[in-house]
TrEMBL record:
<keyword id="KW-0001">2Fe-2S</keyword>
<dbReference type="GO" id="GO:0030170">
    <property type="term" value="F:pyridoxal phosphate binding"/>
</dbReference>
<dbReference type="InterPro" id="IPR010240">
    <property type="entry name" value="Cys_deSase_IscS"/>
</dbReference>
<feature type="binding site">
    <location>
        <position position="244"/>
    </location>
    <ligand>
        <name>pyridoxal 5'-phosphate</name>
    </ligand>
</feature>
<comment type="similarity">
    <text>Belongs to the class-V pyridoxal-phosphate-dependent aminotransferase family. NifS/IscS subfamily.</text>
</comment>
<dbReference type="GO" id="GO:1990221">
    <property type="term" value="C:L-cysteine desulfurase complex"/>
</dbReference>
<comment type="function">
    <text>Catalyzes the removal of elemental sulfur atoms from cysteine to produce alanine. Seems to participate in the biosynthesis of the nitrogenase metalloclusters by providing the inorganic sulfur required for the Fe-S core formation.</text>
</comment>
<keyword id="KW-0808">Transferase</keyword>
<comment type="function">
    <text>Master enzyme that delivers sulfur to a number of partners involved in Fe-S cluster assembly, tRNA modification or cofactor biosynthesis. Catalyzes the removal of elemental sulfur atoms from cysteine to produce alanine. Functions as a sulfur delivery protein for Fe-S cluster synthesis onto IscU, an Fe-S scaffold assembly protein, as well as other S acceptor proteins.</text>
</comment>
<dbReference type="InterPro" id="IPR015424">
    <property type="entry name" value="PyrdxlP-dep_Trfase"/>
</dbReference>
<feature type="binding site">
    <location>
        <position position="183"/>
    </location>
    <ligand>
        <name>pyridoxal 5'-phosphate</name>
    </ligand>
</feature>
<feature type="binding site" description="via persulfide group">
    <location>
        <position position="330"/>
    </location>
    <ligand>
        <name>[2Fe-2S] cluster</name>
    </ligand>
</feature>
<keyword id="KW-0663">Pyridoxal phosphate</keyword>
<feature type="binding site">
    <location>
        <begin position="75"/>
        <end position="76"/>
    </location>
    <ligand>
        <name>pyridoxal 5'-phosphate</name>
    </ligand>
</feature>
<keyword id="KW-0963">Cytoplasm</keyword>
<keyword id="KW-0411">Iron-sulfur</keyword>
<protein>
    <recommendedName>
        <fullName>Cysteine desulfurase IscS</fullName>
        <ecNumber>2.8.1.7</ecNumber>
    </recommendedName>
</protein>
């Protein structure tokens, strides 16, 4: 079977809307367009009913109850709300927050903002495999610690943290535990009870739902978590998030969660199979390739690999009919290596040659085979042009070479 180009393999950045999700959403743009807060007529009632149904679908996926789900504009807002909401509500109790260095910017920048407002934040390092160390975490806890916020799975390297262990540690000490669950929810089983999670951020567009809608799980029992709102007005979502609800978006998020819950066992097996085929195919035909982060504790759909002795930009250009992400971030003038790979201890050279493959529901084996073929071709060609690769092959240790300038 021929593949259609370009191939999309960047599903950590966003996912296409599943046609079944779109179908569920459509009536809520036109015929059922009511405002879920309108209490006086059937337009409002049917919108509210749809929202409550979606709340149930989201809750079910993470083993919560529907009253514990707050709808937001996406996970960036959910991350902001869970961190700032706790910080503001409990600042009398303590001003210390613990997070880790490879969180998403929605968490890191929120924490940085709080530092400007009198909070103290500990950014834990990660281990070489990309996971946070429980020892480090334990040592960082102080009497003033009110919140631990650690992501479930990382968006660049797909590495999964020991969330249940962290949740237990937080619970024993009466510290709130807030989790950015964006990359994990819908991909691997996430259970807020088992994991002792107090707050969990979810995004629709990472799980085949629409962009611009998300949810925040807020625990209601044992303990009942209270949050300060960051958006005021109207008192929607039990006062935690005012604003007219995005009914079609919320219906889409709910439908996406229901599909994910039903299909997760089968889908994760399929994705793991494709991912392992991609990895094996690349490793069989290319030397000097390195996986970044733990393979054992990793999302089934992620592969992050560095291809030594190629130039990152040329590699990306060479595979321009395959949509993937690289470990270089273009900031205005310079090429910065990914802060995530840096934190793992990956050297700058290898970080610049890294590729994140994010497999998704709609990828096929033919696409994977095409990507292997293309990567092998391009990497091989670029290495033929690389004097460094030549020298390495001849056994010259480049790191010990003395460079001369004329
Ligand atoms: C995409 C992503 C976010 C942001 O979600 P939006 O809904 O796009 O705001 C936050 N955290 C992680 C880990 C993500 O991958």
């Amino acid at each position: 079977m021929a593949v259609t180009l370009p191939i999309y393999m960047d599903n950590h950045a966003t996912t296409p809307v599943d046609p079944r999700v779109l179908e569920a959403m459509l009536p809520y743009f036109t015929g059922k367009f009511g405002n879920a807060a309108s209490r006086n007529h059937s337009f409002g009632w049917s919108a509210e009913e749809a929202v409550e149904n979606a709340r149930q679908q989201v809750a079910s996926l993470i083993n919560a109850t529907s009253k514990e789900i707050i709808f937001t504009s996406g996970a960036t807002e959910s991350d902001n709300l869970m961190i700032k909401g706790i910080a503001e509500m409990f600042r009398e109790k303590g001003n210390h927050i613990i997070t880790q260095s490879i969180e998403h910017k929605a968490v890191l920048d929120t924490c940085k903002n709080l530092e400007k407002h009198g909070f103290e934040v500990t950014y834990l390092p990660v281990q070489r495999d990309g996971r946070v160390s429980l020892e480090d975490l334990k040592a960082a806890i102080k009497p003033t610690t009110i919140l631990i916020t650690i992501m479930y799975a990382n968006n660049e390297i797909g590495v999964i943290n020991p969330i249940a262990e962290i949740g237990k540690m937080a619970k024993e000490r009466g510290i709130f535990f807030a989790v950015d669950g964006v990359q994990a929810v819908g991909k691997i089983p996430v259970d807020v009870q088992r994991d002792n999670i107090d707050l969990l951020a979810i995004s629709a567009h990472k799980i085949y739902g629409p962009k611009g809608v998300g949810a925040l799980y807020v625990r209601r029992r044992n303990p009942r978590v209270q949050l300060s709102a960051i958006i005021d007005g109207g008192g929607h979502e039990r006062g935690m998030r005012s604003g007219t609800l995005n009914v079609p978006g919320i219906v889409g998020l709910g439908q996406a969660c229901e599909i994910a819950q039903k299909e997760m066992p089968e889908e994760s097996l399929k994705l793991r199979g494709l991912r392992d085929r991609l990895k094996a195919g690349l490793e069989a035909r290319l030397d000097e390739v390195y996986v970044n982060g733990s393979m054992e504790h990793r999302l089934p759909n992620n592969l992050n690999m560095s291809f030594a002795y190629v130039e990152g930009e040329s590699l990306l250009m060479g595979i321009n009919d395959v949509a993937v992400s690289s470990g270089s971030a273009c900031t205005s003038a310079t090429l910065e290596p990914s802060y995530v790979l840096k934190a793992l201890g990956v050297g700058e050279d290898l970080a610049h040659t890294s590729i994140r493959f994010g497999l998704g529901r709609f990828n096929t084996q033919e696409e994977v085979d095409y990507v292997i073929e293309k990567m092998v071709q391009v990497v091989t060609k670029l290495r033929e042009l690389s004097p460094l690769y030549e020298m390495a092959k001849e056994g010259i240790d480049i790191s010990k070479m003395k460079w001369q300038t004329a």
